[in-house]
User: Fold this.
Amino acid sequence: DPVRMEKIVSLCKRRGFIFQAGELYGGLNGCWDYGPLGAELKRNLKDYWWRKTVQERDDVLGMDGAILTHQEVLKASGHVGGFSDPMVDCKACKGRFRADNLENLECGQKPSCKPGEHKNCELTEPRAFDLMLSTKLGALATDDDPKALAYLRPETAQSIFVQYKNILDSNRIKLPFGIAQVGKSFRNEINPRNYTFRSREFEQMEIEYFCRPEDGLRLTDEWLEARLKFYEEIGVPREKLHILDVPDGERAFYSKKTYDIEYEFPFGIQELEGVAYRTDYDLSVHQKGSGRPLEYFDEETKERFIPHVVEPSAGCDRTVLAMICEAFDEEELTDEKGKKDVRTVMRFMPRMAPIKVGIFPLLKKNEEQVRLCREIQKTLQPWMTVFYDDGGAVGRRYRRQDEVGTPFCITVDFDTIGENGPELQGTVTVRHRDSMEQERLPIDGLLAWLLDRIR
Ligand code: ATP
Assistant:
């Protein structure tokens, strides 16, 4: 549905979720900047992932590795010389395209090759295009100095494998256990497209779960379930996800089982996350590459072996995009006079919403209302994002918050300040985004009431 996607992209720009990187200078293809609301949304996702993956589990530890990566690490892992996509050239438009998905190939960069007409174009044979981005380190590095070469990591996983032994030795932990990491990765994608879906700079949320060989397949299924539950909890429902059990011959050669978790984006069903049983491939290649032992010694059985690995690897930007696509709604309303209206509302799960609560004085000129709003705001701010707004009619303020997905709005009115008698003094109106219903709550109980609903 391209129309829906256009609306989403335009809302994201208009309200400050996502901007193209370097837009002022014509834009940097495949790179995106998250604006104030996008940054909050992404942070909420990463924090919740960390909480569920590391904080609330005894068997997973976190780490935060360097982006710049030793070339030997990526030689041993097989990335150097091996991490590429098949690419074809179109002889008519001179464009270059990823060849593994020819039916979706969009050659439309030049008027001579319009989308859909590309099948008439003459394409070259596919050849490998290196996706790795590199740089030179050090003040004395020259362009041809091979020792100065370093890579921007193409995945966060490798620093986990490389630090596996240090983490094992510095923590009292036994198999099975995992190491988790959230961070930037870089790939020189041939055709960045579908908004932030395929970018050249992106963030990943990865777990490498080390285990005994006989447990690998079972744990892969368990992680798949845990990950599906996670998506449910952030507002991406099970029925919008597709699980692809990647068949023999299409998996990486070392993988005994791979599930792709895919989401129904407006532009098609596409991968959000891969859950792969990678056997002992990774630690074996690093043991060989470094010449250092990476075996695990099992105290109970007195066995020495290289642990196997199950890897749930999710894309942060893709998940943010899925949450945005899932939340976007245009609701048709009819007011008392029968007038029709469309309400744009982002139905984010409260725990993911960039702004948790809007706070409004009914009348911006009423000093007591404003003072109370500011006081409530100060009480809530250590715990959540609060947005104060006194501009225009309250109804308009609600709509502005609906459009960015704020689940609750608080209004301080004349009842609150006791002008209509003592009964409602000290209470505020809380308005719910989804139902648009309102209820009266005491100011004293607001923090607990809200915390209950946003955790
Ligand atoms: P694709 O087939 O879409 O290129 P992939 O199978 O190469 O993805 P993995 O190497 O398994 O991806 O990376 C794990 C996760 O990292 C993906 O599921 C995705 O969420 C994210 N990811 C990978 N490449 C990109 C990218 N170019 N832009 C945004 N996210 C990405």
